[in-house]
Amino acid sequence: MEIRNIAIIAHVDHGKTTLTDALMKQCGFTDAGTMDSNALEQERGITIYAKNTSIPYKGTKINIVDTPGHADFGSEVERVLRSIDTVLLVVDAQEGPMPQTRFVLKKSLELGIKPIVVINKIDKPAARPTEVHEMVLELFMELGANDEQINFPTVFAIGREGIAKMNLKDESKDLTPLLDTIIAHVPPASFGKSDLPLTAQVFNLGYDNFLGRLAIARIYSGKIKTGANVLVKKIDGSTVSHKITKLFTFEGTSRLEIEEALAGDIVTVAGLPEIFIGETICANEGMEALPAIKIDEPTITLNFLVNNAPFAGKEGKYVTGRQIRDRLLKELEINVGLKVDFSSNEYFNVSGRGELHIAILLENMRREGFELQVSQPQAIIKNVDGRPHEPFEEVTIDAPEEFAGAVIEKLGKRRGLMTDMRTKDGQVRMIFEMPTRGILGYRGEFVIDTKGLGILCSRMIDFKPYCGEITKRETGAMVSMVAGKALGFSLWNLQDRGTLYIGPATEVYEGQIIGNTSKGEDMDVNPCKGKQLSNMRSSGNDEHIMLTPFFELSIERGLEIMGEDDYLEITPKSVRLRKKVLNPGERSRTKRLTSKE
Fold this sequence. Notes:
Layout: E1 2-10, H1 16-26, H2 39-44, E2 51-57, E3 60-66, H3 74-81, E4 86-92, H4 99-110, E5 116-120, H5 129-142, H6 147-150, E6 154-158, E7 163-165, H7 176-185, E8 199-208, E9 212-221, E10 223-225, E11 229-233, E12 239-243, E13 246-251, E14 254-257, E15 260-262, E16 266-270, E17 280-282, E18 300-306, H8 321-334, E19 339-341, E20 348-352, H9 355-367, E21 372-374, E22 378-379, E23 382-384, E24 387-400, H10 404-413, E25 417-424, E26 427-435, H11 436-439, H12 443-449, E27 455-465, E28 476-480, E29 484-485, H13 488-494, E30 498-500, E31 507-508, E32 512-517, E33 523-525, H14 555-561, E34 566-570, E35 575-579, H15 584-596
Parallel strand pairs: 1-3, 1-4, 4-5, 5-6, 28-33
Antiparallel strand pairs: 2-3, 6-7, 8-9, 8-17, 9-16, 10-15, 11-12, 11-17, 13-14, 13-16, 18-20, 18-21, 18-22, 19-20, 21-34, 23-24, 24-26, 24-27, 25-26, 28-32, 29-31, 30-32, 32-35, 34-35
């Protein structure tokens, strides 16, 4: 059986997973469910982890890797591109190429891959498939595609309905035109290399409670068998010998146990307990390791600490530094875009690709029963030729025209430089270049500034010279100066000063941030103060308490709004903001000493 290996790549929400699900359904996997099987993926409606599937079509096995579309999970895409032969570049027929479209296409073209373009969602009321096709062609040329790559086949699709067509006016009732295009344009994966010695490269890892660590690998030459002894060539040049205990291939989204797999296939291998992503599985010592998988470096950093707040240990199952350390070590095995420095005794310095990248890790940890606190995310500053350099991002914003002024003003204050602006049918698209420091903490403000009607996307461009101080914070913190249960009467009096993060009957502690102040200064408050009672009755003196709904903290919101002197406390049941120094007197002394220095 011939094998074709493809990855589906696109900007977030352009329809990759929906299209993959439709392909599986057409090829007979009606009960396969969705590729986004992770609970967090289903809740957020985005793909976070690259996943494999396989479908049969006209006597050919098509291995498909569904990849994330969010820039923070770019490392998932980068490692997948090394294991496939062609990509389906999915582009929304209304939005056109977006920042992540550029990122994933650039990586594909650099590897010499010849993409197939799928212009999806052509049934949208504002769809402009012909114009978007021209925009995609311009993007190919701009990214330096060669003649073969520019001559890409294009398929028009409605992924949600499982329809594809070669021309917009064609009649179609299924995805056959897309499947035929894959067979015609994707080269067979084996190239007759099954008789050569074994070489395979690991591009993903999994875990099974009975089999232990699982390596997902592309076989480049030879064959792999259950029970065979193989060598694993490590990144550092050393080799380890292992025996393969089980071998699986993909059938839809399920694993199918097999005895042998040939060159070109993508398989899951059990029996390699010490293997990592990018390492080479080979037949003997004399064979060269395949080139390591290169991943772009992280852009933000923050500290993970043991939770030492007054409510520490009440909700979490795993609370010690050793448990957090072991969990981070486990995460490093599969999360190749993450870096952790374990050298400090007080904290773990974690670096990632963006706030969402870190927030997903923290959300997974809290659901597993971990309790910890983290410091404010900071952009990574590095030295280049003796000068400080920081990461810069290209920020693309689509919003109604009426909100453009507010967005331009805010991003201007954050060192955003507008490079392009286009208006059409009351919608404006603005492109800015700005430091990552400037975009940190802005997304929440952007939703308010555009009344939820704007779309903000960004991609990391490069490290550029440090551009000076950025003034971002226009609000202060409302800090509880007592411990106890928050009362509705007190919160009613405080809500005029800013936005509250808690509701009545919430247990609070001294130093916990219970809201923000609109005047920009920190303010110590007593949320547990009750109404003064007297023995006099008066029908006119009792105010009617009306509480505004409070702003519920999530991990992402907390990472956005926290200050340098704050910690974000994360437990299985709660997300709280707190001051690093809890006592108001000590906090004032620390502030005075810092200002003198």
